[in-house]
Each structure stands twice: as C-alpha cells, then as structure tokens.
Write a structure and sequence with these properties.
heterodimer; A: alpha+beta; Rossmann fold; OB fold (Dihydrolipoamide Acetyltransferase, E2P); 2 domains; 5-stranded antiparallel β-sheet; B: mainly alpha; MetI-like fold; two-stranded antiparallel ribbon; 77% helix; globular; disordered N terminus
Chain lengths: 364, 300
C-alpha cells in the first residue's frame, strides 16, 4: 500500500489496493488505492468517464479487475463473484424486478440467503418500515413514483444485511427538492444501521452534503481523498479546485520565495500565497469567492487587484459578483447580502483577499 | 370558506361539466374504435363468415344438428392416428424451436448494433423465400443421394444412406427450419425489454447464475415464450405444404386429411370436422400456454 491517496492508509474496513482495469486499450482505472473505515460514508466524485462507476462495479464483483485487491473486513474478495460478496448495490435506474411486488423485491435477497420464511417476512416488514413504505408491500413496483422506487431499491439492498453498500448515482432521476430530502433520509438510515457505504456521484453538492469523506476522481485516479471541509477549503489539485465550487484562477510565475510564502507575478499584479515553490516556476493561484471582498480606498497592499464589474448574480441567500481584469482574467466574489446600491456593471473596483486564503498549484 | 361561496360551488361544477361534455356528448360515441370498422368488416365477411359456415357444416346432418361427423371421425383409428401425428409433430417441432430459439434470442438482443442487424437479416431473409421453395430445398438435401446423406457417408458415421425423406425425422428437420423464426422473434422482443442490470441486481442480492435465471430471467421472458409457443404451435400443427412434400402419404397430418376430404373425397362433413378439431387443438394450446405461464410469470 505504497500509493495510498489521502491521510488514512492501511487497516481500513474496506481496502482497495493497486486496482487496475482496462477496456481494450483504454486504462479506466490505474493502480487505484482507497481505504474506507467501518461505518463511513464515502463519495466517489468525478465527471462521467472518470472511472467511478467502473470502480463501483469492481468492488461489487460485477467486473473482474486486471490487477489489485479488494479486501472487506480482512477478507480478500477479489476473486469472488458478485453473489458471494454480500455487497449490495443501489443502481442508478434502481433495477427493481418488474415482475415482483414491492415486498417480493425486498424479500429477494433474504430468500437468496435461504433465511427461514418467518425471518424473510420480518426483514421485509422491518426494511419497508425503515423507508416508510409499509403500506405498499403488495403494490407492483411499476406503480410507484420515482422517489418510492428509489426507497424500495434502498430497502432491497439493505435487507440482505450487506457488509458494504454501494450507491450508483441513486438520486439522479429525482427532482431537486425530493433529492435533497432523500439524501438526508438515507444518510440518517445508514448512520443508524452503521452501514459502510460508497456513493458514486458527479454532483458536488450531493457529495459534500452526504459524505464523511470524498474521493475526487479524474481519469481513473483519485486526485484527493479527504473530508468535505478540506476538499473545499484545500483542494489538492487544480482539477479538484475546478470540479468543486467556484474559484478565481490566475496563472503566473514565482518571483519571490520567503519563509512560508511565495510571491507570484500575474497579469493582474503580484499575488502572495502561502506555500513552497521554486523561484521561477509556473504556477496557478486561486481563491474561493467568499474570501474576496471589495477593498476600501487607500494604498495598495498584497493581493489587491483592480477590476471591472461585469455581472451581479443574485442567488437568494448570497450574491455573486463577476469581474474582468484588463488582462482578460475573470474573477468572482461572493457577498452575503445584495450589494449596496451603486454597484453597476462597468464600474471599476478594487478587490482584495487574505494571503492565508490564497491557494497555489505548480503548473506542468 | 363562507356559506354563500359554498352554495355557489355546485353551480360552477355543473356548468364546467356541461362545458367539458360538449364536443362528443351529443353522439356519446368514442370515434377512435370506429377506425377499425373497415378492417373488421373485411375480416368478418372473408374470414369469420366462411369459418362459421365451416364449423356449422361439421354439425349439420340430413335432419338438423348432429355430432355424427365427430363420432365417425373418432371411430376411425386412422383418423385418430393422423390427429396424434399432427399433435406429436407440432409438439416436437415447437419444443425444438423453443430450445434453439431461447439462447439465440439472447444473443440477438444483447449483441452490438451491427451484429444484431446481421443476425436479424439472417433470421428474416429466409421468410421472404416461399415455404414451397424451402421445402423443395429440403427434399433435395434429404434424399438418399442428397447432400446430408453424402456428408454422413463421407464422415463415416453411416455405412449406407439413411432414409430421411418421407420420415418423421426428415419432416421434423424441415418444420424446425421453416418455423424457427416465428419462435425467435417473439422471444427476441421479450428479451430486449429486459433491463440487463436486473441480472446484476440479482447477483448482488446473492443469486447464483442458476437462480438468477429461474427467478428473474425466465419469468420476465415468459410473455415471449407464450407468444412464441402459441405462434409456432398453431403454425406447425396446421402446416400443409411441408408435411405434404417432406412426408407425404407416409406421415399424414390433419391438414392433409382436410385437403383430401374436400378435394378428393368430396366429404364435406369429414373435412369440416377435421378443420374444427384442428382449430380446437390450436386454440386450446394458445389458451393453455398463456394460462400455464401466468403463475410462473408472477413467481417471487
């Protein structure tokens, strides 16, 4: 486990190590390593085609890995077929059995485990109750709404008492309001049961809301594996920065290194950031919009830039201000309240942000 | 809500209902089914009426209603034997078609678009060739100095030509060849409707491959099996050209009795009785297969 991504490595409940998968000539996963603790809710976040669903299918046993190992609770399951893994999956389209009723769908797993009839009935009752569908047992699954079908899929997956629950974009077919409700409901349910879960999504909000830790994936690799707060505040790579939230990004060259900070010459002026870079290196500096503020008039200090306001975007609880610098660079700031009157597009303003909140990434 | 408003509500409802009723309420006839009237008339006059006359002829005696035709039919051991031949041949041909078509339907449904097109063309193009041409093809292949026998001799499996033409085995080969597409197509349609992820879901819930098939795949393909069996059975049990050319007098079937009764014996009662029985057999199988499939389809 030499290539562990993230702070924790080794000794996890779920250990994925050196996992690789190619389809024909394309490497979909490249030597991927991930450790998940017991009871943890981990999101695999990335754009489509980044390999997150492939990783999920490899863990479920629906695909065979070219190299690497998957270990759950000390048991190496790499060579086991899906039906011997006791890993449950909630599929994107739910994949409910259309020829069975709601109760029969939930009973499918317990029946396959050859539980006594009374236990099967008890499991169905318990898990349908958990997703608040006790009254729907006799219905055809095709007669349910999208949200109800999703809950049946969750109940069916949990009824097998899995060692690990995998969720493949289970909310993507639901409308926004219902999705937010379901996210919180599912999170509660899994915490209550102490189920370890891996959740695949391309939706950054979903990942940040639900997860204990988020693995940001790109091109078959994990870019960063950390808790949502760290992922947002300290993105490890320009990709992670780009994929989650908004940021102002400026490219430049290091012109001064002192102590724990660097000075970067950019098209909008010198920017100071904490970090260690080689003098003369090409870098990207960035800052999240909530740290950018309008600067009062006065002598220019570190990280002050002069820009033109281009757009004011009102988002209810907050307002985004978009700016353009003379160099063509785009900047974005967030203010809590609608800005005071007088802020009109075309106006030239001064912005500033704290040195401590400036991110810096080496460019290739 | 205040009392005066509540009083006004029924009046509003009534007027709204009157408005909604306006367009078709005068005729009170839904116009859509009327579109089927021309086709229904043609079918009724050219098919329904003659069929009814045929069925009536089978129970028409010199002095009114009689079952004498049926009694006579079943008293003749030859006729009973022929009916048995027809049923046996149809059951065998349908069973073999089902066994061959079931995996083929999956291959067809799960293959990539280009391969699927090729396979579909291979399945459908033979349907454009007339049954007579295909059957004559089989007579050439199956005769004692035909291709099949020459291959068997060359491979050393047999030391002298096997008699295939004018035998039950030869007829079965021809029937399966000609009617196989009618089994594959309904099955293909059913398999294509199945979400391939259901198999993954069943696997993740702990079902081994056998139980995935029995609990998920089989019940979901049952509508296709029923349609294919009903279609293939009714076609094979009533086939006329193929049995006539491939088996002839050596292996009589119901359709041959019917043709013989009408064309040579001029025995309308025998012909219509045999026709009615053939229809009864086909309808029974179609109804029974869908009834038998119902519990399997809903199995948990």
């Amino acid at each position: 486990m030499t290539n562990a991504a993230g702070p924790s490595s080794g000794g996890g409940y779920l250990q994925i190590s050196g996992l690789s998968k190619r389809f024909k000539q394309t490497a979909v996963l490249e030597d991927l390593t991930l450790d998940v603790d017991k009871g943890e809710f981990v999101s695999l976040l990335g754009p489509s085609g980044c390999g997150k669903t492939t990783l999920l299918r490899l863990v479920a046993g629906l695909l065979r890995a070219d190299r690497g190992r998957v270990v759950i609770d000390g048991r190496d399951i790499t060579a086991l077929p899906a039906h011997k893994r006791s890993v449950s999956v909630v599929f994107q389209n739910y994949a409910l059995f259309p020829h069975l009723t709601v109760a029969e769908n939930v009973a499918f797993g317990p029946k396959m485990q050859r539980l006594p009839k009374a236990d099967v009935v008890a499991a169905v009752k318990r898990f349908l109750g958990m997703v608040r569908l006790d009254q729907y047992g006799d219905r055809a699954v095709t007669a349910l709404s999208g949200g109800q079908q999703q809950r049946v899929a969750v109940a069916r997956a949990l009824a097998t008492r899995p060692t690990l629950l995998l969720l493949d974009e289970p909310f993507s077919a639901l409308d926004r309001k219902l999705r937010e409700e379901m996210e919180i409901e599912l999170r509660h349910l899994l915490r209550e049961l102490g189920i370890t879960a891996i959740f695949v999504t391309h939706d950054q909000d979903e990942a940040l809301v639900m997860s204990d830790r988020v693995a940001v994936m790109s091109a078959g690799r994990i870019e960063q594996f950390a808790d949502p707060g760290t992922i947002y505040a300290r993105p490890a790579t320009p990709f992670a920065l780009d994929f989650i939230g908004l940021a102002t990004k400026l490219s430049g060259r290091v012109i001064g290194v002192d102590g724990g900070g660097v000075t970067v010459e950019t098209a909008v002026g010198p920017i100071v950031a904490p970090g260690t870079c080689v003098n003369g290196a090409r870098v990207l500096v960035a800052v999240r919009p909530e740290y950018v503020e309008l600067a009062p008039a006065g002598a220019p200090e570190a990280n002050h830039v002069s820009v033109v306001l281009t757009d004011v975007v009102f988002l209810g609880s907050r307002t985004l201000l978009h700016f353009a610098a003379q160099s063509g660079d785009r900047l974005v700031a967030e203010v809590g309240q609608p800005p005071e009157a007088g802020l009109v597009p075309g106006e030239t303003l001064r912005l500033r942000w704290p040195v401590a909140r400036t991110l810096v990434y080496p460019l290739p | 809500m205040t009392p005066p408003r509540r009083a006004a509500a029924p009046a509003i409802d009534a007027s709204r209902a009157a408005l909604e009723r306006t367009p078709w309420s005068r005729s009170r006839i839904d116009p859509m089914p009327l579109l089927a009237v021309p086709a229904a008339l043609v079918l009724g006059l050219t098919f329904g009426l003659p069929l009814l006359m045929l069925l009536l002829a089978s129970v028409q005696g010199a002095d009114g209603f009689t079952l004498a035709g049926y009694v006579a039919f079943f008293r003749d051991p030859f006729h009973v034997h022929v009916m048995w031949n027809s049923i046996k041949m149809a059951v065998m041909a349908t069973s073999i078609c089902l066994v061959l078509a079931y995996p083929a339907a999956f291959a067809l449904a799960r293959s990539g678009p280009r391969l699927q097109l090729t396979l579909l063309a291979a399945l459908l193009l033979p349907l454009t060739v007339s049954v007579i041409v295909k059957t004559f093809g089989w007579t050439i292949l199956l005769r004692s100095n035909g291709v099949v026998n020459r291959l068997l001799l060359a491979s050393g499996l047999v030391s002298e030509p096997v008699r295939l033409i004018f035998t039950e085995a030869g007829l079965l080969i021809g029937m399966v060849n000609i009617f196989l597409p009618f089994m594959v197509l309904p099955l293909f349609a059913a398999v294509r409707m199945i979400d391939p992820r259901l198999g993954d879901a069943a696997a993740c819930l702990g079902a081994d491959p056998l139980r995935r098939f029995v609990r998920v795949t089989l019940p979901l393909t049952m509508p296709g099996v029923v349609a294919g069996v009903a279609l293939t059975f009714s076609l094979t049990v009533a086939a006329y050209v193929t049995p006539t050319l491939l088996a002839g007098e050596k292996y009589m079937t119901m359709s041959m009795i019917i043709a013989k009764a009408f064309l040579f014996l001029r025995n309308w009662q025998l012909g219509s009785t045999a026709a009615a029985l053939l229809l009864l057999i086909a309808v029974t199988v179609v109804v029974a297969s869908s009834l038998l499939a119902r519990p399997l389809r809903n199995r948990g």
